[in-house]
Design brief:
With 210 residues, the chain is α+β, with helices and mostly antiparallel strands. The chain has 7 helices and 13 strands. Helix 1 runs parallel beside helix 3. The longest helix has 12 residues. Bound molecules: zinc ion.
Length: 210
């Protein structure tokens, strides 16, 4: 198994490549920027890209998805509840003062319960609205690993002050969909260092009973 997570772009979004050398296939999660680097790495590894999975439609996570699709032919998957945000790309680029990346509607919606990923390393989509209405986490149960997007961070949670954000909803999503996973589940957030479900249940200040 190949698992590489590295920050891309000005907001340092964690992009992840998960690959299966035997099958010669990979998925990329959240190619927000630096598409040339992501594509070179896939080429170096000799892996064919099967899916581009996007946890939510903020520019720092989705910005490079269409370019990567054009380079590889892989489909883009994104929850349909984030389509309004996808259409606001020019405004999002304005927030950051960067050029507006070209985007296109996803090839398929990351709906709750959908199985995505690689044959040997499948993931279940957990719809976890709150940071945005279409935010999802990807639970790779056989790997005891969660890709958390901007829903859960080490010691923090996603902001809810942008369009589509809802502070009670993100807490509900984390409590009902994420904290029910086993303590040892490794969490790879959309920004910053990795953590575990157990560590966040014990010490995340946003998740303690009031
Ligand atoms: Zn975000």
């Amino acid at each position: 198994m190949i698992l590489e997570t590295f920050p891309v772009g000005p907001l340092q979004c964690n992009c992840t490549i998960l690959g299966d050398e035997e099958a010669g296939e990979a998925i990329v999660i959240d190619p927000g920027d630096e598409v040339g680097r992501i594509h070179s790495r896939l080429t170096e590894l000799g892996l064919k890209l099967k899916q581009i999975l996007v946890t939510h439609a903020h520019i720092d996570h989705v910005g490079g998805a269409l370019r990567l699709k054009r380079l590889t032919g892989a489909p883009i998957l994104l929850n349909q509840n984030d389509l309004p945000l996808l259409k606001m790309m020019e405004m999002q680029a304005g927030w950051l003062g960067v050029a507006t990346p070209e985007t296109a509607p996803p090839d398929e919606s990351l709906t709750d319960g959908l199985l995505v990923g690689l044959d040997r390393y499948p993931a279940e989509v957990l719809h976890t609205p709150g940071h945005t209405q279409g935010s999802v986490c990807l639970h790779f149960a056989p790997l005891k690993m969660l890709i958390a997007g901007d829903t859960l961070f080490a010691g923090s949670i996603g902001r809810t002050d942008l369009p589509g954000g809802n502070s009670q909803q993100i807490i509900d999503s984390i409590q009902t969909r994420l904290l029910v996973l086993s303590d040892e589940t490794k969490v790879l957030p959309g920004h910053g260092p990795a953590t575990t479900i157990g560590d966040e249940r014990r010490s995340n200040p946003f998740l303690q009973a009031q």
